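Dear colleague,

Thank you for sharing your sequence with our group. We've completed the structure prediction you requested, and as agreed, I am returning the results in plain text so they can be pasted directly into your records. Please verify that the sequence below matches your submission; if there's any discrepancy, let me know and we will rerun it promptly.
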Amino acid sequence: MAWWAHPPVVHRGAWRLCYRFVFNKRSAYWHGNEDQYDWNKGGGIGAFRRMDNMCMVAWRYVDGLFEVGPYWHPDGAAAMRRRGESGRVMPEDVGLVLPILPDEVLYVRITAVPGEPYRMLLWDTSDEHDITCEGTCCPSLSREVSAWFGGTSMPKKVVRYHRERKAEKI
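Please find the predicted structure tokens below.
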């Protein structure tokens, strides 16, 4: 289930989207079922007209920690889903699930250069991870992807986290 925070912001050419996230006790939620392990999206970059060919930062709350990682839909993901494939790459698929403590600051930078795969840089106080989103290809027109809560269950309370975002041409 998704609901959109704002209409898409469209960009032409090369640009990057920078985020600063802080999760705290008000960000924690408990489903008590398999939806606890679904990934929520904190925002990202995608193709202007399609729901595939996008790169997003994903997060969830599991076992008292927040987990964050890269999440993307390769170019042609809709065709993959028609063939019975998942059509998405999740943090576990690339071996990058970052545990984040409450009130720890996480920085994310997603870079979009037309004709190249999206790139994501995630870093906190101790680690830095540079990821190439294999299978994606940034078009000349791309857009910001809004944040949304994943899974089929809505949280039993309002979930809040701090997110600062800045888009810039490169």
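Summary note from our side: The helical segments are 77-82.

Kind regards,
the structure core
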